[in-house]
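3.2 Worked example (two chains)
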Amino acid sequence: MSKHIVVTGATGNIGSALVHTLLQQGHRVTAVARPSQRFDALQAAGATTHPGDLHDTASLTEALRGADAVFLMIPPNVTAPDVLAHMRQVGESLVDAVRAADLKQAVFLSSIGADQLAGTGPVVGVHHQEARLKAVDGLQVAYLRPAYFMENFLANIDLIQHMGIIGSAMRPDLAFPMVATQDIAAKAAELLNQGFEAGSVHYILGPQSYTMQQVAQVIGQAIGRPDLPYVQFPYDQAKQGMVQAGLSENMASLYDEMTRNMNEEKVMVKEERTPASTSPTTLQQFVETVFVPAFQGATAAQPA
């Protein structure tokens, strides 16, 4: 049965893949995002586009009114001076719009670790948003809790090109679940298409857990640098590197908190895997289909 589904954050990796999947399934899709080339491409693919900022509750309410369901997310803002305050503002705007539009069904992009009140860095923001959505009378919500995004490794391209390494403050031997964003979009599409139990939580944990050492090996093999090393940076050096890369001091501090607690295996590392939470895309497949083309494109763009 065809539905009218609204997708927020529609130009991101997850949102964009979700819009295309829902269109292929025959649904009427309204894509909400800021104007961009990616936004125009969604319109060309058949989506109705609603340009807007998620802080704009009135505009968002207009987009949601009359829809059967919505995919909700709080797009990351890594440059915000107070990241959790930014997440709260967007989160409250989303909830106000859902209430005003009298929406009945939503799938919310949360995160592994969202069951914990503290110690998870930026994930604390989605912990609070889950609680806000639970408090909306008459709204059926499914909560997606994906693991660490494989797409995060794209940030290492510059490091590989200029220093010949992959690096972060994460322990090299720490195995934790990693997921490709296309698998998150596929799960969201499945829930929006088939329906779900109100209040249900859906973990998406990739096919297995990987270590950063394994990540370096897989990427190194794929780009013709089989000896590519993984380097664990001291926490202060990693944080300084994030700020130099354009993250706000606050966001760098939140990532630092999360990494320290993951390294000590306090958060987001040992989620129990089930057949339902296991998603198909392997690290090798992600590297071949997403990382290598991005790396080659960045290398081609380098001045000779």
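3.2.1 Second chain
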Amino acid sequence: MMQSELLDLLTVLATLFNLAGSAVQDALFPDKRSEAQFQLDVRGALRRSPSIGIELDEHANAGGGITDLSFRGIPIELKVESLTLFALADGRRFASQAASYAVARGKKTAVLCVLDCSPKNGPPRDPSQLVGLETLENGVQVCVLVIQGNLQKPSALSRGPVRQ
């Protein structure tokens, strides 16, 4: 991977990691969202970053498909899970799509960002367990990041089951 691509990837990830932290700290995604709504949220966060700004592309063509977002050719694929808790390993099923876009753009890296707004009955998960790197057989590395949404308020967690 070229140094410039690595720097571009880190630029994107810094903003997305900030969004993931804010999602837990500030309950940015208090309930279920559509993929289109999530894309607007991510696009807004990335555009507000001075190091990204207008260089963020939306719906660029790549490999016969259309990327959600991209920065200097690095595809940023967005997904939303609203039914079951999304584990980091679940990102494998979407990694090939992101990797295909990367190859079509001449890149060795891609980002897969998943908003998990499934029902939750416990506290937020440790963010360090929600980021990983998938290396595909074509050599593309896909950074998978899970953002937590639809979280319980801390005070709701201290309430036991309702008594009759």
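3.3 Remarks
Residues 113 and 145 are 5 Å apart (CA to CA).
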